[in-house]
Amino acid sequence: MCGIVGLISKNSKEKIIECNNLIAHRGPDDAGYLYHGDLSLAHRRLSIQDLSENGHQPMISMDENYIIIFNGEIYNHWDIRKNLEDKYSFKSHSDTETLLYGFIEYGKEILNQLNGIFAFAILDKKKNELFIARDQFGVKPVYYYCDNNQFWFSSEIKSILNTEFDQTISNEAIVNYLTFLYSPADKTPFEKVLKLLPGHYITLNINDFQNFKIEQYYEIPFDNQRIEKSESDLIEELESLLINAVQRQMLSDVPVGFFLSGGLDSSCIVAIAKKIYPDKKINCYTIKTNEGEKMDEGFVNDLYYARIVAKHLDVNLIEVEADINIVKEFDQMIYHLDEPQADPAPLNVLNICKKAKMDGQTVLLGGTAGDDLFSGYRRHQSLKMETIVCYIPLFLRKIIRSFVQKLPVRIPLFRRLKKLTTNLHLSKTERIVGYFSWFDKEKLNLLFSDNLKPIVRKYQPLQILKEYINKIPNEKDILNQMLFLEMKFFLTDHNLNYTDKMSMATGVEVRVPFLDKELVEFSTKIPTNLKLKGITTKYILKKVMEKYLPNEVIYRSKSGFGAPVRKWIINDLDQLINRLLSKENLEKRGIFDYKEVQQLINDNKAGRVDASYTIWALLAIESWIKQFDNKTILKR
To answer: Which residues is 116 bridged to in the sheet?
Structure first.
């Protein structure tokens, strides 16, 4: 919906306008500012609910004591407002105003009532206190920074670049981006710029901001409570919750469109919308990929299935050409991402949202999170092996691993077998978290400069995942342990981050019906054998969809929303690689060892290792440092 920025410093008034301008793309419809002592608040508006001036932000309460800046949507705000209308006089039908008076009435307890996507800050002028909160699942980002001279927060990192701040690079975050392709939890490339975690809030006094406090108000409820109902009853309940979720998220005063990749999740959302509004014209967007390239990466062609779904549901399908000049667009992608995430999928989101915006669609609904809630990834199928592994003697596991690791990496099946057996000799917990790693830690250590090698060796990036698994120690089913990690990290820090950043780069809001709060909490209580039945992923969701979609779509092969990274890195991107990973650049930064990086590139080209995504991560990191660390960033 919007972009928010707040700055506490002696010169905040001088800095805040340019800070806000750096995220102008998030809200092209309006800008607003408010000043209170050393605090400056700024907002960029993307008008979606109540398009009038009554929705302007920062929004001030009737008594002029409370001020709010808000990014997101509260889908149940009318239900909340009903309980407030007798006490407060509303001048708009904006969910921002509902949230403002909800906070005045209930304080931080309002967070427990919210079903939506949100990042907001509320100032209490009398108490001189600021309250900053992020939604339960991290759909909307919040970054923050604090030193002795200033406290800053915003929807995007780039808005801090107009201020004086500590630009020390986080070596641990760099390891994260190479290990996971994203950085889990609170770390960003800047050591002192952090992410406010989902389900958390910050409180601070403006005159004593260095002593700010962070508290958690929500945790995904994987608590061993299971719904004791028949399979047919659970299927019926899931369908009802899906209908409620989509209907809630269609709330808008501007046109709403849809992603339609042809996969189960996006097709599900479109099918439910068509059921709710059978006579409404529904516009859907899909990427028109090169069929051969997707097959080379071990996937199937999405477009074929998207067309089948569009015809079956009688919706309008707009095919967006995957016209990507990655050499020219790479830096721009990293600029908008705010972080050096190593995935080409953001470019698809960007291209679809550009086209949707041209067509007048300000809101898009997508199928993100279906895999994370209901078990849709190949690594979940791999967990079936765990029931066998514990009976295999350790020495035999090591022999199997050694044999499989020698298989060639260019064949998709062999790549998956190598991934499956990489951690075969380790403990169960280490095997589970190992599925999230893209590159061996010992080999990764070699990529760093001699000065950093000792520091990097001490840091164990998988430790944060192990710690979070321990948050559900009584969970006997390892599938739910993995789904918990998916939702805490891969979903939030990777998929949701790039979806937010790339859509908002074009002034389009993407909503996530699968992350409806009621739907998520239901999903955690479904027996896991209804999520992954045998090796059938998303079993219960597929059963719901059998009366909506053709079986050809429901039971098709899994396909990623990406691009042929391996082909690009091996055959097409020498120019980009030579430019960003040149000896001059790497030695100037002092982070990576040029010879080791070149050896990795050569080994990858020769098929001795499968390191294309690691090389992509190196490119992303170098691009990010070039654009962010030297403060040459400009509004684009």
So the answer is: 74
Residue type, 218: Y
The long-range contacts involving 58-65, CB below 8 angstroms and separated by at least 24 positions, are 58/32, 58/33, 58/34, 59/94, 59/96, 59/97, 59/100, 60/34, 61/100, 61/101, 61/104, 62/88, 62/89, 64/125, 65/124, 65/125, 65/126
Please tell me the predicted confidence (pLDDT) of residue 634.
38
- Cα–Cα distance for residue pair 231/161, rounded to 1 Å: 53
CA-nearest of 383, 392, 504, 367 to 433 is: 383
Locate 572 and state its tokens: 């097409």
Are the CB atoms for 445 and 433 separated by under 8 Å?
Answer: no
| pLDDT on residue 474 | 62
Residues in the chain with pLDDT values less than 50: 632-636
Which two three-digit tokens encode residue 429? Answer: 């917990």
What's the half-sphere exposure (Cβ side, CA atoms, 13 Å) at 131?
17
Residues with Cβ within 8 Å of 322's Cβ and at least 6 positions away in sequence, in order, are 287, 288, 289, 290, 348, 351, 563
Report d(CA 223, CA 492) in Å as an integer: 20
**Cβ atoms of 584 and 572 closer than 8 Å:** no
Cα 475 from Cα 431, distance rounded (Å):
16
Q: Which residue has the tokens 């082909």?
A: 567
The phi, psi pair for 516, rounded to 5°, reads: -55, 130
Tokens of 490: 């891969």
Give 46's contacts (C-beta < 8 A, 6+ positions apart). Answer: 1, 2, 26, 27, 28, 29, 362, 504, 507, 509
The pLDDT score that the predictor gives to residue 260 is 97
